[in-house]
Each structure stands twice: as C-alpha cells, then as structure tokens.
Write the structure tokens for this entry.
Amino acid sequence: MTEKPWDGRFSEKTDARVEAFTSSIAYDRRLYPYDIAGSIAHCKMLAKVGVITDDEAVQLVEGLGIVKRELDRGEFVFHDSLEDIHMHIEARLLQVAGRVAQKLHTARSRNDQVALDVRMFLRDETRQTIDLLQQMRSALVDIAGGHLDVVMPGYTHTQRAQPVLFAHHMMAYYEMFTRDQDRFADCLKRMDVMPLGSAALAGTTYPIDRDYAAQLLDFPSVSPNSMDAVSDRDFAMEFLSAAGISMVHLSRFSEELVLWSTSEFGFITLSDAFSTGSSIMPQKKNPDIPEIVRGKTGRVFGALVSLLTLMKGLPMAYNRDMQEDKEPLFDAVDTLKACLSINVQMIPRITVNAETMRKAASVGFLNATDMADYLVGRGMPFRKAHACVGNAVAYALDVGKELDQLNLAELKQFSPLIKDDLFDHLTVEHMIDRRKSRGGTSRENVERAILEAGKVLSEKA
C-alpha cells in the first residue's frame, strides 16, 4: 500500500528511497498499544461531542480492537511506504472497518498523536523504573541487614581511610537510589499531561472535549498550549537526565563490585550464576555483569546528549527532526531497566567475605584519626594532634608496626597526654561505635537506618 494522506497535493509518487529513509516503523511500532488506546479515546470523544455518530464510534472501536489483536499476535504486516505506526494502524483500520476509518483522524494530527503516544509509553516505563528502583533499594537493605556486624575499610582517593560498617556502605547506595526514585516520581508529574487535541500546532476548530479524552486515558491534566504540546520533548529529556544519574550510581556500584571481587581485594564473591569464564584461561571467573552495567552507562548518557542536541535548535512547532527522539529514548529505557533488573537478581547472591574485610580494616593506620581525637579529648588542639599522630605514623612505618602495636613507652614520646586507655580507642569496634553523629557509621545508627528504610519500603510497596 503506497497511498499517502497527502497525495492530493503531490503530482509524483514518493520515491522508494525516500520512503525507506523517512520510515520510522522499524522502531516506533512498539508504540502501537498507546496509539490504539489514544485512537479509541479520541473516537469516543468525537462521538460524545457529535462529530461522529455513536454507531460510527462503535465500528471504529471494534476495528481498532481487531488491529490491536493482529499486532499482539505478530500477524501485522509493515511497509516502509506507510512510514510510521500511526499510518499503519489507520491504513489497516480502513481495510477492517471500511470508509468510516477515514473519520478517525478528524480534529487531530500526527503531531499531537505521537506526542500522546510517547507520553503514554514513557509514563508506563517510568512507573516500571520506579518499581525496579524500589526493588533495588530493598535488595540493598536486605544485604545490609544481613551483614550488620561486618567491618570494612572506608576509602577516600581509593586509599584506606577509616573503618566503616559494610552495611553503612550499602546504605549509602540505598540513599542514592532513593533519590533516583524520587527524581523519576517527580518527572512523572510533568510527563503525565495529555497533548491530544493540540492538533498540528494551533488546536482545532471542532468542539472537542479534551478533559473527557484525558479522563479516558487517565491523564490528570491537559496541556495548556497547543504549540508547546506538540513541539517539546522536555519530559523525555527529564527522564533521560534522571536515567543518566541513576546509571552513574549503578556504574559506581558496579566499579566497587569489580574491585571487591578481585584476588587483590577479596571482599566479596560473586555467584557463579552471575559470572562468566575465560575462553582461554580455565581459572578465570569474570565479573561480567557489573562490567557490562558500567559499560552501558555511556549509552544512556549518549541518549540524553542526543536528545538535547536534537532539540536545541528547533524552531516551533513540530519538525521532522523530532522523529529521531525515539531510538535513543527507547534504548535508554530498555538499558536502565535491564541494568536495574539484573542487579536486583544479583545482589542477594553476593557472598560477603567478612574476615577479609575486617583484616583490611585493621591495617594501614585507619585508627590515626581516632588517636588524634583522643588527644583532642585530653585538651590538645586538633591541628597539633594531627601533627603529633602524623609523627607517630611515620615512626610506626619505620619500625614496621601499626599504631596499636606500638607500646606505651613508644607512644609517649609523641605526647605525655597518652595513657593506657588510648589502646581501647584504637580498636575497630571502638572506632565504629564512637561515630554516633547523625548519619555516621556506628552500629546503632546503621541499624536504625536499616529499620527506617524497611518501614519506608513496606509503606511504598
């Protein structure tokens, strides 16, 4: 089928190469459930206001149902000549329902039609993403709660800094993904606005009832400006921005899993079910899942940059350039959901090597700050205490000992304020439990954070 809606204006048939070049059906076909739902709502609205009859509306709805079932079953035949999913459905509807199908497009344009489809698609995908983030947060809370007494070194500049609870580390990612979930919930508000009824750009002369159509499609509001409604994709850019930030967090988490699973760290063991081997080295067990997640982050970044670049120079209203919004958007949606889903499945299968972590937290002078705090507690200014402990660390390095392995006489050479009770301050347990400041890594704080997170997650479930 090669007839075009605009054939009346043109004296030549569209070149087949142009049809192939301009066709978007290879990817926008996935919008068909939303296109049909929008068309059903539109025809019901047209009947309500008297633009078409009730009988005509019934015929159109029945015909659209037939077309949807064909698409659901994979029986639908696509042609480049029909360009996009809107024209495919309309052309097939004409075959199924007859000439009444020619009335369906009254009072609308493909411009507001595609804006509607994308908003409905992205609304559903955003809700699914929010659900996956909820599951991700739950998985992190579970692994934190199951390892509440595991101590590990905390790092700054990739250097061992101070001991923290492994659970505290996991709950840091819980906070990141909580903000991600909030961002998606927030952008959903601006996404959930119905553009249908804006027509090509100026609205329509027909007495349409946009609020009724919005009610049928479960939109809480309608777009207030027809030009804005058909010409902007800021709701998609906002989604991609939130997706990019979430991928940053997934990538950071993946980087740590990669490092922690190495022989050099040995902090965790990834499940065999979520690892792969080498084609040549029999001993290898590779952390391919976190590596691939880390790699896929660039795709989502690229989608955001692509859409920002696409839109930055477009005059109002609709321009055909905007056809290029879908491929990066669809890819980013699928990529983010896949990365979240695989992590939700992988995290519960991670083995935490508690003893290895504890040993790592017990060496490398991670108690130096606590020694300085001890001196401050005895009246020494912090900057002076910092220098004093720095000298003690230099000495300990020379003699090949940790600070807590030095005897009292060795320590007293750095300050007469040092007493026997210093050694209690330098134990891992003491260092953890003393950090009771709000948000700190004390067991009491972390246990409370896990309990509160559990309540929040159960309320939103």
About this structure: The mean pLDDT is 94. The radius of gyration is 31 Å. The chain has 19 helices and six strands. The CA atoms of residues 241 and 374 lie 45 Å apart.
